[in-house]
Design goal:
The complex is a heterodimer of chains A (489) and B (253). Chain A is α/β, with parallel strands linked by helices. Helices cover 57% and strands 13% of the residues of chain A. Chain A contains 18 helices and twelve strands. In chain A, the strands form three sheets. In chain A, strands 4-1-5-12-6 form a five-stranded mixed β-sheet, sandwiched between helices. Chain A is elongated. In chain A, 47% of the residues are buried. Chain B contains nine helices and ten strands. The chains are: A alpha/beta (489), B alpha/beta (253). At the A-B interface, α15 and α16 of A face β6, α3 and α5 of B. Chain A: It is a multi-pass membrane protein. Chain A: GO terms for molecular function: transmembrane transporter activity. Chain A: It holds the Pfam family SBP_bac_3. Chain A: This is ABC transporter permease subunit.
Chain lengths: 489, 253
């Protein structure tokens, strides 16, 4: 039970990031003097991280055009904040990032249908289990005659979220099952509806929510034998924050005593009805508008700093001093040799240990740092393509190296490389989608929220594609215009 | 040599230059007096251009001395070499105008950046020089719209805008269509008449005969013969010179 789609690979990457940064810092003694509860109370704010693409646990509603996090987990978080007499501040990010955010202190706690597996318990502390719903399979209604429970799935294809409890249960308890792993539930449901898998293993409330919104689907009980204490969902904390954990556990006890969970689920159901009342993409235009806005902010700012960094890197590289050229070469090679996704994680969580940077800023920094390396290589090519006579003429006139670069070489180099730079800008627009992983509300992030909210698997993707195309195509028109204007010769 | 070495504006002593294993200049000696026009002629690959490019340190000589105004250029630091731009102008075979700026901006760039001239002053100086080379109406066009002859005249004006003591010409007419050679040589001759010190690497023997004070014949990395144009063309002394002059005369016939 519990959304635990943290993949092994992802875990490894994050561990590398954390360990890497940890070694830069003197480790604070975790248990000796636990101030976690005092810190929250003094700051007057409880910062909670979540990944709102998992109804009914947490998702977003379109309230008068504004997106707002709702769901059972959000109600629980509100209750906890109320009991602590502090304000609640919710930070949205991808599920993969939640535990890292807890460990690096970006958030006080993470709630998001997290299942406290033994591996996770090594890296984070957990509250009591606050919810334990049970396991279901989603199947196509037409198959209801043949598929009754896990035993009917022998030798069939079963879809689960990668690295989750559902996946290990399917592998362990269904003989000869072919278990297919994917990252997001909407993708799994899409696979089910297109008959790529026979069933999808999900939590009971998730299954019920889907059935309520899609009449071609049916939910059946899994038939797994489960120990409730092992498979519930709990709230994650930084290791050693015992005082905060204890305070939260008191709130959970209170919630259980007042039997508030069924009420929370009912509220979530109401919100979901509102969401699915009108699943037309027009109704969600504000989601897309926000996505486009942030995609543009990231792209424009990153391109600007990317070019500045690129110029600096290339001037360093062309310097006759090794202490300048060598770091530039090393930087470029390193950035080109590591995935941008890891770089984004590193900047947000790694540097985040030293300075607290907001996700958007971290995203922009990471994309700029990445782009700078590529831009510097493009510029270097452009400079090499400028006729040698140009620098000789400059030297014969006594121009300094700086004046020669600024007035003669770089303007010509930029003209040479304009098409290649344009390519790089378009790549940035598209690759900026990677920063959705740290919860920056750009197009892909909004797209996933919307797919989760509306239970429409394909339409938002189509809209996102069109939006990306419009952005890229307009940009290439603009670049062409400037290219023509630069053509003196 | 009639004049004393002490008075030479440029004095070249045993200048050598190698590119890797290939020794291009094997020991050049010579003096250039203020106001003199020296034409350097010789077969292709004889090192004429390399010699010229050593004079303003576009190439760093391997050994030897270039004494300019009493100072050895080969010992100059990068900063000091940069100051040569104000004193030695150079005109290239392929013009090397900056295609990203107008003719006027091409000319104003170095006076403003290097001599820190005010914009208005740089404009005045540039327009005056453009007038002199007969291209005042081209001030605001980009180099791509100029003919080869016009481009080379602008390149000369650009070098002159720095008010140099010496002008170096590296085959200034070799890249030109034949009908444009005349207009460039004409400007060069005017410049010579005004008393500019000039070192001209050229294949234009007519120009050398008419304008040069001295003609240096270079071959195989040495200056084989230095003489007045009349002597060198009509009564060459050196065997290599004779061979070269004969060849040219035969080609012309």
């Amino acid at each position: 039970m519990g959304k635990s789609k943290l993949k092994t690979v992802m875990q490894l990457l994050l561990v590398v990031v954390i360990v890497g940064m940890g070694s830069l810092l003197a480790r604070r003694p975790a248990h000796a003097d636990d101030q976690s509860l005092n810190r929250v109370k003094q700051s007057g704010t409880l910062t909670v991280g979540t990944a709102p693409d998992y109804p009914p646990f947490e998702f977003q509603v379109n309230k008068g055009g504004n997106q707002e996090d709702v769901g059972m987990d959000i109600d629980i978080a509100k209750q906890i904040a109320k009991n602590l007499h502090v304000k609640l501040k919710i930070k949205n990010m991808s599920f993969e990032s939640l535990l890292v955010a807890v460990q690096s202190g970006k958030i006080d706690m993470a709630i998001g249908g997290i299942n406290p597996t033994p591996e996770r318990k090594q890296n984070a502390d957990f509250s009591k289990i606050y919810y334990s719903g049970g396991q279901d399979f989603l199947i196509n209604k037409n198959d209801a005659g043949q598929i009754k429970n896990k035993n009917s799935l022998k030798g069939k294809k079963v879809g689960t979220q990668t690295g989750t409890l559902q996946q290990s249960l399917a592998k362990k308890d269904i003989p000869n099952a072919h278990v297919v792993g994917m990252d997001k539930t909407p993708d799994l449901v899409l696979a089910l509806k297109t008959h790529k898998v026979a069933a999808v293993g999900v939590e009971k409330p998730v299954a019920q929510a889907y059935v309520a919104n899609d009449h071609d689907l049916k939910a059946i009980d899994s038939g797994y034998k489960l120990n409730k204490n092992d498979v519930g969902t709990a709230i994650a904390f930084k290791k050693g924050n015992t005082s905060l954990v204890n305070a939260v556990n008191q709130s959970i006890d209170q919630i259980h005593k007042k039997n508030l969970i069924p009420q929370y689920l009912k509220d979530a159901g109401k919100h979901m009805k509102v969401n699915t009342n009108n699943t037309s993409m027009w109704h969600y235009w504000k989601y897309f508008a926000t996505g486009v806005e942030y995609t543009l902010i990231i792209s424009v700012v990153s391109v600007f700093f990317g070019i500045i960094l690129g110029i600096i890197l290339v001037l360093m590289r062309l310097s006759k001093y090794k202490f300048l050229s060598w770091p530039s070469i090393a930087y470029t090679e390193f950035v080109r040799g590591t995935p941008m996704m890891v770089q984004v994680l590193f900047v947000y969580f790694g540097l985040g240990v030293l300075v607290n940077i907001p996700a958007l800023t971290a995203g922009i920094i990471a994309v700029s740092l990445n782009s700078g390396a590529y831009v510097s290589e493009i510029i270097r090519g452009g400079i090499n393509a400028v006729d040698k006579g140009q620098s000789e003429a400059s030297r014969s006139l006594g121009l300094s190296k700086k004046d020669m670069m600024a007035s003669v070489i770089l303007p010509q180099a930029f003209k040479n490389i304009w098409p290649a730079l344009g390519n790089e800008f378009i790549t940035i627009i598209k690759d900026s989608s990677i920063v959705s992983i740290i919860g920056v509300t750009e197009i892909v992030y909004e797209l996933n929220i919307m797919r989760a909210d509306t239970y429409r698997g394909v339409a938002p993707i189509a809209v996102a594609m069109i939006l990306y195309f419009i952005l890229s195509f307009s940009l290439s028109r603009v670049l062409n215009y400037f290219e023509r204007r630069m053509n003196h010769d | 040599m009639t004049k004393n070495d002490e008075q030479a504006l440029i004095q070249v002593n045993d200048l050598k230059k190698s590119f890797g294993e290939n020794e291009v200049l094997k020991g050049i000696n010579g003096n250039i007096q203020t106001g003199q026009v020296i034409c350097v002629i010789g077969p292709s690959g004889s090192g004429k251009s390399t010699f010229l490019r050593c004079l303003n340190m576009l190439e760093q000589p391997t050994s030897g001395q270039i004494i300019f105004d009493g100072k050895d250029l080969t010992k100059f630091t990068h900063k000091e070499v940069a100051t040569l731009g104000e004193r030695i102008g150079m005109v290239f075979q392929s013009f090397n105008l900056f295609p990203n700026m107008t003719v006027l901006d091409n000319m104003k760039l170095a006076p403003k950046k290097v001599k820190h001239m005010r914009d208005q002053e740089a404009t005045e100086v540039s327009l005056k020089l453009l007038y002199r080379v007969g291209l005042k109406e081209k001030a605001n066009v980009y180099p791509s719209s100029l003919s080869g002859g016009q481009a080379q005249r602008v390149a000369m004006a650009r070098a002159l805008a720095m008010n140099p003591q010496v002008m170096l010409f590296d085959e200034p007419t070799s890249a030109l269509d034949p009908e444009m050679v005349g207009e460039v040589l004409e400007v060069m001759q005017e410049l010579a008449n005004e008393g500019m010190t000039m070192v001209v690497v050229t294949h234009e023997m007519g120009f050398a005969k008419k304008v040069a004070d001295k003609v240096w014949f270079m071959a195989d990395g040495y200056i084989q013969e230095k003489n007045t144009p009349d002597q060198l063309f009509d009564h060459p002394e050196n065997e290599r010179t004779k061979e070269f002059i004969n060849k040219i005369i035969n080609e012309d016939e």
